[in-house]
Amino acid sequence: MRKKIAALLTGCLLLQSLTGFVIPSQKAYAKTAEARMLSESQPAQVSSHGKRTAQATTGSLEIEVHPFLEYTGKVTIEFNGETKELDFANKSSFLTARFNNVAAGEQTVTIKADKFATYTQNVTIEPGWIHKLLVCAPKINTGKEGTNPGWLQAGDITGDGQISSEDTDSLLKLIRENTTNKNFDLNNDGKTDIADLQIIVQNIGENPQESLVEKLWVFHEVAPANGTSVVDGDASALLDNKSVTLTPANGADISESSPVGLEFTLAEDGSNAPVIGGMKLLSSYEQDNGETISNIENGTVKLELDNGGTESFNLENQAGSSTRKQNANFLRTSARAASVRTESDGSLILDFGGQIAVKRVTINITGVRKANKKLAEIAKVEFVNDMDKRIPEPELNIPALAEPEPGNEQLSVSWSAQSNVTGYELYIEGPVGKTKEIMSDIIKVPGNIYTVSSIKTESLINFETYKLKVRSVNGDWKSPWSDEKTGTPEPQAKPAPPDNVKVTGGRSSLNVTWKDMDDSSGYMVYYKKTSEASDNYHPAVEGFVADEKTGGTGIINENSYKIENLEEDTEYSVYVTGWNTLGWGSPSLKSIGKTKNSNPPELPNYKLLNTSNGEGKLSAHIVSASFGGHGGAKMVGSTLDTEPKSALGLVDNDYNSYWVKNDWDDGVAYQANDRGMTITLDANYKMNFMAFAAYEEVASLETVRIDYWNSQDSEQHSVGSRLIRKLDKNENQFYIVKFDNAITANKIRLCVGRGYTRAEMKVGEIRFYNYDSLEDDIMGLYSDEMHTTLRSGVTAETIDALEKRLEKPDSESGEKHPLYSELKLEIGTARDILNNKPSAAYEVINQITGKKDGHLGFGGLNPWQPLGKTVYAGETLVVYVGHNTKRTGDSTNLNLIMTQYHAESGSLSKSSSALKIGRNEITVPQVADKEFERGGQLYVAYSGNNASDKYAVRVLGGSDIPVLNVYGKTGTERTNAIRTYIDSLEKHVANIEAEHGKLHKGGSKPVDYDYDQQNCILNSTDIMMEKMMYSLPATQVWGPLSGKEDKVTALDISLQAMEDTMALFYHHKGLSNDAGTERGNNALPAQHLNIRYMRMFAGAFMYAAGNHIGIEYGSTGLASGASGLHSFGWGIAHEIGHDINQGTYAVAEVTNNYFSQLLTGTKRYKDENVYKKVTSNTVGRASNVFTQLALYWQLHLAFDNNKDDHHVYSNYEDQFNNLFFARVDTYSRNPAKAPKEGLSLNGGSDQNLMRLSCAAANKNILPFFERWGMVPDTETIAYAAKYGEPETKALYYVDEDARDYRVDNPGEPGTIKGSNVITVASASAISNQVQVNIETSADTDLIIGYEIIRSMTSDGVTESQVVGFQPVNKNGSATIFTDTISTINNRVMSYTVKAVDKFLNYSAEANAGKVKIQTDGILDKSLWTASTNMVSSDDTEITTNDDDPDSGYDEKNPESVEAKKNQSIYKIIDNDISTVYNGTASSGSAEITIDMHAIKEITAIKYSGNALSSVKVETSEDGSTWVTVKEGFNFDGTDKQTLWFNSVKESERGNWIGAYNARYVRLSASQADVSIKEIEICGPSGDNIEFMQTGSGQNSIGILTDDYQYGTEATNVIPKGSLIFTGIYKGNHAYNVVILYDINGNIIGSMNDTTKSGQVIFADVPENGNLGETSDGTWVYYVEPGQWNAAALANTRVRAELYRVDDAKTLEGERITSDTLDITIPETLPDITLTGGTIPGN
After folding, report:
1. Radius of gyration of the chain (CA)
2. Cα–chain-centroid distance for residue 1619?
3. Which of 168, 711, 1391, 1645 has CA 20 to 30 A from 1371's CA?
């Protein structure tokens, strides 16, 4: 129910009662409360001084429309039979429509606009006047009765002119469809979302708000004053609402001697002058701080009155008279004197102090503020009939938001604390996540300081800009938003070295890319030739010089750069550094890149068939060439190709002519006649390979298809072919197409392609080669396709003879065979077999495949199987693949994986194309380009899903490394495998350095480095288990074993520890190979995880990314050093958790920690933080990730049925039935198997978790999640309801003790559920803290603790909320809970307590009583600092250390060094009165400066310390401009004295409070020595209400003996026989109202459904001040005779509530600000007499 109030200015009264109490002489403001609806008092009327001219028979209507959003539509206004349209296409802040010559009388104005409800208002037009309406899109309340603008209500999206449920339904449908429609975008933010829905919901059912009709006189004439010229036009432009610019006619600056002015004629001679109450003069100037003031600095306004007199107004220094807060703040004027003030748009408002008849007005300007002193622009002049009927600025407790302070991926924000509010809402908007999606959030904040680090669950990003604003909250009431600020998070340390630097060589250039680092805002690339000295690096930007403060000229702002004009064919070393505002960081790892030369690729000439006839000429034996032309394929740069589809440029020995197609396939995957390149030869030729290349190839090709024809049968044939990538001597890439068998052809079609990557494909030259039997003869050494057995008759001489042929160059070209490296390996293999040293083949395990893991719902798994090889970039490999049914040349489901040892996360591996059965030639690609050994382990990956597949793989080339494979091995087989591995590992480790010297040093460039065991690729090993693979340094695996006597057992135990860890984790995920199919597919993963030795990126100790978990050298001993589950730490379990997190509800850095806590038993969250969160009534996740973890851990504790967290059940049913998250994950994988149908997982992680948890618990446990700040949506609520009524157990308090007690005591014996076990519960308040003492009769071993509930009553209705949980004190003494109230003040709170037992049941509730919180508005000091000119014996010198090696050094005065000290002045703000600061000023007065690090509204200082004399207090917003707020004050040394700041003259200050906006407070005193315990600074403490008592302590309640007249109106009477209540209040009479209730919520004065009660509020008026916030006013509340019954009211307990509103007439923004404790109406009521004078009418 709304409270309706009206204020009437009355006389000074003296209120006395027969019971002896006195109310001071104050002005009275009467308010009635009849049915909470008050009759409005009409203001005194001032009659006109004469009739208007007969000619004035019409008036005008002006309508000013403010959308207040970036509205771009049209507004249509209908009035007086006319229609006008305002077009906001340019996002104007406001537009005005004027209707002239409107006949007198009442008419209706109608306003229509898209998205807004139709606005209508009746307006009575009076002749000669402009009637002005102001209509705004948001609802504006000015804080002054009857002066609100009209409200154009947003939310009509159906276009019917109304706002209804149809609009919400339409918008909800759009939101659910995730569709954006500009017609539904109410707040014009480019999105259709919940923010738009909120606008509709807030506006449904709201009553329209009409605009005040402001009357403005139409001046008849305006002319420039003498000596004034009008620039560009004349002064009459003001008649048409246009601005004019004035300048002195003499060309001088505007001054006293050269003023400018305007003369307005309001009434012609002989006619009656209009009655005017004031005027508005708009000439604005925006200051540097963004505030707008008047441009008129000096001047006068002269009025010529109708009676012949004159009045003048001085316009000087109006910048300080703004109604906005400047230094001293007041809310409202009282009995009005003439005044001049400035409004927020810079308008000067001249209030004449009453209505007077004015004929002429002269404005004289003698000074302006703008830089151009010759011009004064006048934008608008209005003459207002009644200043009481203007729309002033509202006063709405809008916080002033300070500039955000940047932190690393966070922003710290603060704002001015507001009185009479219960909290705040902070809005933030900006980019988040990898995609930098723009998101927003509204965060509930209890205090006025907050650090925001994320938007919803996504972290803020350094160097991105975020928008912030804040508003006050009190229940359902919310203030308008503050002005918007922007903030940019910045790192708080110098940048880390950039990660993932990659260098790609170009022609005389290097392209450098790197990761865009979160902590860097700029970069620089440095380079040198690898042959140059190590200190010879140059910046890539010419002329660049690094600067710590600015970065330097030419700093690179992107994460890529091209270094040009380098030497060709030269190797360079490159690194990158990052910069931010703290300076330049350390360099990245050095990368190697080699520039390319301008030479084209050189194709082999060995046995060349189509030899060259010269560049640009057709090569030998070529008849014709053509191409298919599909998909935009074309020839470029060929002079030979003049016919369509001709491709002779492919065989013209000129790389400038080439075939190109931008696609991924040209006839390999999709075969057709319009694809490929076809070359016709002049005869049939036998050949077994061909070659091709292109100049400056963009992306490599991967697949090939060969079709051919010959003259023997003219049929099309195909031959299996393999594409072998090769590098020529200049490191240009070319391709050899190896045929599976020799062919005879006179026409060949070449088709090329790659994987599904669309990029340029290019072929420049094609070469054909005569058949040579050497390769076939070498392959003929073997009798099997795996090349493990020699054919009969092969001898050493056979092999030697073939080797001799291989080594012999071709007689014509002088070149050796193009596949020399591969064939050399074959010769070596044959010799090894002959000498009984064959290399083994690896049998691929067909169970390890990703095809079996599609059901899991998580990634991070790895299918790699180690081949026991390490290979380097550029090395040639021959890989043989065998199969049980496939034939040579058939494609396989195998890929070869080549890796980088000790790699960065983004440069780990490259995969080959699918291997083929038989022989595969592989050139190892460069995976990484860093300046250390480039190469790593080799793996094979199976991608099929066929249990019959039996593959074997054999690798020729590379270096052998030890590998342990215990997959599927048990017992003796496992033991023997471990023993063999250890023997191999020991020998390998002993010889690594020697092998490095033999195989790497001085050899191939990618591994030609000095031995470094952390980077040598030979120092590697792999251990493959069923669910985990280790890829680690061999020396690190050997280290923990080297000293063990039984190395086999030690390693077995260590591996078993990891296997048990994975078994435990998968157990809790509900995975088992024994699960069957009843609950869907819950089989264990077929693939393993891979923990491997990796290089850490910035800020990482370990990480999980892609298909591996990266750990650094120091952590790699875990493979062989574990003795059980306890051996693994939090970190490795954390990373495993990342990889196996269930995607439907995973929250990064939170849910993965479940596995860490499960494994280690370490509890990283604090119970007290859990209790704070689940009793905070806040929405959203806890800010701390470990506190968030507790939510998931509590579900485990509440529903799992074993005290041993490591327990593994022996069968699947027990696993499923006893592990909560086993059920959660099962239903996540198989929603249809949940106990109740309809489980959908489309709501995001939080909604999905709530739905899954209700299914897993088979209960409705939404209250648990709501306590944790989650908000279930309608679908979640509906699904949870299927599981019955909400759970009543206190799951959110469960801990390990409670879980263990429940497991040990099935059936809940001895539960306290519903029992009265609390014997003592009492609450007491000191300042802003309430202490609740609790005792119980129950066994404290059964009790977890106590829940504390705080209740407050508003509008007669009591609302309760949980505010804390206190663990039980087990030592037998009382349990004490302390409730600290941060925002609420002057409110009565009642407390109740409930005990919670270890079964999570509640006891009966016990009442702890009521208290009233009352503080002086003391501000939080947690972020404050203090400084002083004094020294103290407690100041201590800072010991020098690495962080501060030269403490106190002064480079300008090095001979005078004073060591830095820890200053003890902090003691004055440490919240500890027992610590005392004793200081002495070396000269002059003692001075202390406190920096609050945010601008706050402050009113007083509280001081505890020794006596101080002549105290002066100054405040400042910026630390440079100071305002004196008190001086000459003396502290007498008594504890905690209060010094109130000046508001008006001290002698007149009385009970008025002055408030100042300040960040700094400076206090000085006349003496040099001080001893201070504590200083506190107070802000506004808010409204307060109390009942008054007599000197004898009797409550001031009685019966009025005589009628009391308190005003001039006949109705201004309190009737004789009224029941009177009196009290005191702090607040503002115009915005406060008092209501009395009984304890049942009934209004005192209510009888038979009617209420007849009223009130008179008294307040002092300072003689020379503004009426504002009073600190000691009085009030009288009365109930008229007949509305109360003495007998019925006797012994009734009553309480008073004080309300504040934003608008004293409409009561918008109503909220309770204070209330009282109960008092009792006595059985015998005393008589009360009110005496005093009345004030005459205005």
Report:
1. 44
2. 57
3. 1391
pTM listed for this prediction: 0.69
Residue 98's nearest CA partner among 148, 66, 132 is 132
Identify whether the C-beta of residue 1047 lies closer than 8 Å to the C-beta of residue 1037: no
How far is the C-alpha of 42 from the C-alpha of 1607, rounded, in Å?
Answer: 13
Quick one: tokens of 1353? 């009553």
Q: Which of 581, 618, 630 is nearest to 761 (CA)?
A: 630
Q: Specify the DSSP element, H or E, that contains 573.
A: strand 571-580
CA distance 1549 to 1543: 7
CB atoms within 10 A of CB 1452: 5
Torsion over CA: 718, 722, 727, 733 (sign): positive
Q: Extract the tokens encoding 1551.
A: 């009970």
Report yes or no: 592 and 571 within 8 Å, Cβ to Cβ: yes
Largest CA distance in the chain: 140
895-914 burial, b if ≥16 CB within 10 A, otherwise e?
A: bbbbbbbbbbbebbbbebbb
Residue spans of alpha helices (H) in 1200-1271: 1212-1218, 1220-1229, 1244-1257, 1262-1267
Residue 1286 near residue 1262, CB atoms below 8 Å: yes
389 phi, psi to nearest 5 deg: -115, 45
Average pLDDT, consecutive stretches of 10 residues, N- to C-terminus, the chain (1738 residues):
25 28 42 31 25 58 78 89 88 80 92 92 90 84 72 88 86 72 74 73 80 84 92 84 90 94 88 88 72 85 88 67 27 50 81 88 93 90 82 68 91 86 89 88 86 87 94 78 91 89 92 92 96 94 93 94 94 95 92 90 96 95 97 95 96 96 95 95 97 90 95 91 90 92 96 90 97 94 87 93 95 94 90 85 95 93 97 93 87 95 92 90 91 95 94 94 97 97 97 93 86 96 98 97 95 97 97 93 96 87 90 92 92 94 92 96 94 90 91 97 95 96 97 96 94 98 96 95 97 97 96 96 90 95 96 88 95 90 86 98 97 84 85 74 37 44 86 87 87 83 90 90 89 84 49 72 90 88 85 85 81 90 82 86 81 76 44 84 89 91 60 90 88 40
Strand order in the sheet with 1021-1024: 963-965, 1021-1024, 1028-1032, 1089-1093, 1108-1111, 1102-1105
Alpha helices in 1069-1209 (DSSP H): 1118-1121, 1130-1140, 1153-1160, 1167-1174, 1185-1199
Sign of CA dihedral 378, 380, 383, 384: negative
Closest CA to 1583 of 1674, 1416, 1713: 1713
Q: What angle do CA 72, 73, 77 make, to 5 degrees?
A: 135
In SS3 terms, 1690-1735 reads as: CCCEEEEEEEECCCCCCCCCCEEEEECCCEECCCCCCEECEECCCC
CA torsion sign, 1093 to 1099 to 1102 to 1107?
A: negative
For residue 1294, what are its two tokens? 């469960």
Q: In the chain, what is the straight-line distance between the N-terminal and C-terminal CA atoms, in Å? A: 33
Burial 1546-1577 (b: 16+ CB within 10 A, else e): eeebbebbbbbbbbbbbbbbeeeebebbbbbb
Q: Which of 79, 62, 223, 227 lies closest to 131, judged by CA?
A: 62
